[in-house]
Write a structure and sequence with these properties.
single chain; about 450 residues; seven-stranded mixed beta sheet; 15 strands; globular; binds pyridoxal-5'-phosphate
């Protein structure tokens, strides 16, 4: 998604001309070297250093990162404990393909994960990213059940590799020109309270979604042909959509009843983002398989398929594999990440400061009719902008303006939702109240200017 031209930062920030020319040089090199599909996102902020909540720009300015690098740095950028652990591991061994060689950090991480995961998930396949974890989950599910069908949800985002893209339905532009996708994938509606026909009665969206699922099972593909239901317990890219608890609990019940595996994609919701280690614990639902990634290693590439031993050991040897998955440095960073979340009480902080941020945003909603909805759990908070006076018409333009205005004032946030109309607020979990106050004040000024 391109919200701005590449000149954005130079124009929104009043930088010195010498610095502007440095920025122009960067843009020139980028345009020559990097595939636009890779490099032309928003805002292409030239950054020279990152620490904690802050990004330090080439323009000499400091920016508050309220999107935590897409939720990959829940303990903040370059946390000293994570850096020290990665450095120590790097001195010993940078890489060793798991299976060919064996190293302590992958085993130690696999021992630690069951302490924080829901429902006795105690065996792991490590890969390099969230999408790769999702690929592994669906390969595992099809392989062990011998069934082809996968149920996914509208609004879902599971990544960009072909299997994951086949499940993704958050924006049709993400699927453009890619067909044919993986066969036997069926999309059904997600329980989305704000966008349902009855926004004042969340139970209605649950029954609507479950009815649609039942129709697919009755009329299109029999439950006996379905390997798995894959769901984000809170939709991320799809718009920070929080379903009622009964929705996820009903999916659990339907899957159990029909021997279908329930896969939770917790790539974005994991590692404390919701104030619990995983959203499964918020909703009190135990999936059979989980995909995790992003914040697991605080920015070092790592993802994992998690399942119970009894299921994982039925995955036919050789049908899946990896070169870099379970890399020793990434695993060392992951161990340090878990230790940091524990040592610094970050789950608690995400809960408390998440509540605080949510309440400040709810106050702001009373002041600005452009804010249609504010929702969140922990530090996964979305603010949806609408065209005032309409029935929840998405306001993409207002979101763009607010994001630009905020960036110009030193606050980086990022949009999500079908029309990029939802502004996500997802800072690192160690954000302080003072930093939240500062962000709120910038957001207030940005909304006032953009309105
Ligand atoms: C829920 C979810 N699943 C999977 C992915 C893909 O992860 P990655 O970009 O690491 O491949 C993302 C990325 O945003 C995500 O939010």
């Amino acid at each position: 998604m391109t919200l701005l031209t590449s000149k954005t930062v130079a124009t929104v920030k009043k930088t010195e001309s010498s610095k502007r020319s440095t920025f122009a040089e960067l843009v020139k090199r980028r345009e020559k070297l990097l595939a636009p599909i890779f490099s032309q996102d928003w805002p292409n902020l030239p950054v020279v250093r990152a620490e904690g909540l802050y990004l330090y720009g080439l323009d000499g300015e400091r920016y508050m990162d309220f999107m935590a690098a897409f939720g990959a740095v829940n303990v903040g950028h370059n946390h000293p404990r994570v850096i020290a652990a990665a450095r120590e591991q790097m001195e010993k061994q940078v890489h060793g393909a798991v299976g060919v060689t064996l190293h302590e950090s992958v085993l130690r991480l696999a021992e630690m994960l069951p302490e924080i995961l829901p429902g006795a998930l105690d065996m792991f396949f490590f890969g390099n990213s969230g999408a790769e974890a999702v690929e592994g989950c669906i390969k595992l599910a099809r392989n062990v059940t011998g069934r082809p069908g996968i149920i996914a949800f509208t609004g879902a985002f599971h990544g960009r590799t072909y299997g994951a893209a086949s499940l993704t339905a958050s924006k049709s532009s993400y699927r453009l020109g890619l067909e044919p996708f993986l066969p036997s994938v069926y999309h059904v509606p997600y329980a989305d309270p704000y966008h349902s026909a009855h926004p004042d009665d969340p139970s209605q969206c649950v029954s609507e979604a479950l009815r649609a699922l039942q129709t697919v099972l009755d009329r299109i593909i029999a439950p006996s042909q379905i390997a798995a239901v894959i769901v984000e317990p809170i939709q991320g890219e799809g718009g920070y959509v929080i379903p009622p608890k009964e929705f996820l609990q009903s999916l659990r019940e339907i899957c159990t009843r029909n021997d279908i595996l329930l896969i939770f994609d917790e790539v974005q919701t994991g590692f404390g983002r919701t104030g619990e280690w995983f959203a499964a614990q918020v909703f009190d639902v135990r999936p059979d398989i989980m995909a995790i990634g992003k914040a697991i290693a605080s920015g070092f590439p790592l993802g994992a398929v998690c399942a119970k031993q009894e299921l994982m050991s039925r995955w036919t040897p050789t049908v899946h594999g990896t070169t870099f998955g379970g890399n020793p440095v990434s695993c060392a960073a992951a161990i340090a990440t878990i230790e940091t979340i524990r040592a610094e009480g970050l789950l608690d902080n995400a809960k408390k400061n998440g509540e605080y941020l949510l309440s400040r945003l709810r106050d702001m909603k009373k002041k600005y009719p452009v804010i249609g909805d504010v929702r969140g759990i922990g530090l996964m908070i979305g603010m949806e902008l609408i065209v005032p006076g309409t029935d929840r018409e998405p306001n993409t333009n207002a979101a763009k303006k607010v994001l630009n205005e905020a960036l110009a004032r030193g606050l980086l946030m990022y949009p999500c939702g079908m029309r990029s109309q939802v502004i996500r607020l997802a800072p690192s979990l160690n954000v302080t109240r003072e930093q939240i106050d500062q962000a709120i004040s910038i957001l207030d000024q940005s909304l006032a200017t953009a309105s």
